[in-house]
UniProtKB/TrEMBL annotation:
Keywords: Hydrolase, Protease, Serine protease. This is Peptidase S8/S53 domain-containing protein. InterPro entries: Peptidase_S8/S53_dom (IPR000209), Peptidase_S8/S53_dom_sf (IPR036852), Peptidase_S8_subtilisin-like (IPR050131). One of its GO terms (molecular function) is serine-type endopeptidase activity. It comes from Asterophora parasitica. One of its GO terms (biological process) is proteolysis. Pfam families: Peptidase_S8. Belongs to the peptidase S8 family. GO terms for cellular component: extracellular space. Residues 1-114 form the Peptidase S8/S53 domain. The lineage of its organism: Eukaryota, Fungi, Dikarya, Basidiomycota, Agaricomycotina.
Amino acid sequence: GIIGANPGNAFNISGVAYGASLSAYRIFGCRGGTSDDVIIDALLRGAQEGQDILTLSIGGSRGWSESSAAVVASRIAASGIIVTIAAGNDGAVGSWYTASPGTGIDVITVASVDK
């Protein structure tokens, strides 16, 4: 990914963390869907493998901090690992609606707006 792009490459693009070791965990099947148990497994695997930061660009339609994946993300964040998760794509539901597991406590949730 661009975040790990080594300076001096043919495209003259430098990532902000070019010296970092990156890991990727596949959680989506061929049809594009996943479930909380698969998300939880990836979160736990990242924590067990000693990752410093876990980033998920996902979000489900459950906007509560009590969902299984949000609870696991909260506990991992409480252990000192930085957890960043997308807020989701459900802004039309309401300006304060955040998708799970981005609803986790101590989780950094990232969103964007059009204007």
